Amino acid sequence: MEKLKVAFYSLGCRMNQFETSAMEEEFENRGYILSEFTDKADIYVVNTCTVTNDADRSSRKTLRQAKRRNPNAVIVATGCYAQVSPDELSKMEEVDLVIGNSHKTAVLEIVEQFINERRQDKVFIDNIFRKNDFETFQISTFYEGSRPILKVQEGCNSFCSFCIIPFARGKVRSAKIDQIVDQAKILVDRGFKEIVLTGTQLSQFGYDHKEGYLYDMLKKLIKIDGLYRVRLSSMGINEIDDKLLDLITSEEKIAPHFHLSIQSGDDRVLKDMKRNYTVSQYENVVNQIIKRRPDTAIGTDLITGFPTEDEKAFENTVKTVKNLPFAYIHVFTYSQRKGTSAEKFGDTVPPQEKKRRTQIIRQISQEKNKKFRERYIGKPLEVLIISEKAGKKVGLTGNYIHISFSSGKPVNSITKVVLTEVGEEREKNKGKEI
Fold first, then answer.
1. What is the CATH number of the domain that holds 344?
2. Which of 47, 183, 219, 231 is the most buried (most CB within 10 A)?
3. Each residue of 130-141: pLDDT tens digit?
4. Parent domain of 369
5. Element holding 149 (H helix, E strand)
6. Separation between Cα atoms, residue 161 and residue 339, nearest integer Å
């Protein structure tokens, strides 16, 4: 029997990318041939995103593209959009299977049942809030360069008024600390130097079990011989207590790069967003980190055009982000999501005004990012070589500066470079090995 070809496409966050990669590995181990999504395949699996209306549209567009490439293919919609809006996707002529996050680890099994038995069931969804245990794939084969991604937590207990993600990912479920350490040791034994920890809200790790929190897990990880660096994904300032703050600002193995979402720079809007902190509280945490570890890169997420963000609130946000030492800002235009508590506010900011505000913040982000990188011109920097492009090695510093340079050293080795030139984009930086 001829082997079937399967193609995957991932939209949205790093965790989706992790899970897509893990699904690819499962299908490949079962004997399927992995194809590019742009090629003709027998099965297309689209790992959808639903964080905004644009994400929903992109997911639907991608599913239709797959069906056009091969009208006889099995088209699978999985991921967050599938979990939150299964009815919308099941009504699409192009879609054969809708598999929510509640069944994501069973995608291979469900697809094979569909192919072999031609079952009539189309939608596979359970109430995500009934999920009490952390379910994940084993060692990830998704890498950013030579950096393996380790998913350690899923779900969020915050329920910000604008956010649909808890309804897509459920409440907090965390991996067992010993399992995380064991997987990290396997990766280190394979020769990897940096591990990226990812989760829906990493700083809520351990909220569901009694084994310990992020602090306790990190204390064990940094003891692993041969592990050069641990990089953390998005955290909330409310979960960063004094112990965790002390650890992440003093331990050299923890990358000085923290993504701390602010979402707005106006206290009233923050309250309406149910963020449960004020601008001054956010500033205090960031300033403490920078004071203790001055080279730290602080990244953030920010939403423009929230329904209660009037012109004065936006001016406050602009002032706030200009004053804070951000290395970069991920800017999102507000998108009303059905089922969130912010829906009661309506969608009051006109689209063109949202666009204008988004452009202003993105311009500030570009300026801040370039200035952050320019601080290190002429300085010797230790980098991990994560890839090779066009005959040049690409190195990554602990504080997330990418540098292209010539070197005879292999990928996944550590070296020192001097940053000689900063590009308009972070991937355009140049350096010289010393």
1. 3.30.750.200
2. 47
3. 766 776 655 444
4. 290-374
5. strand 147-151
6. 10
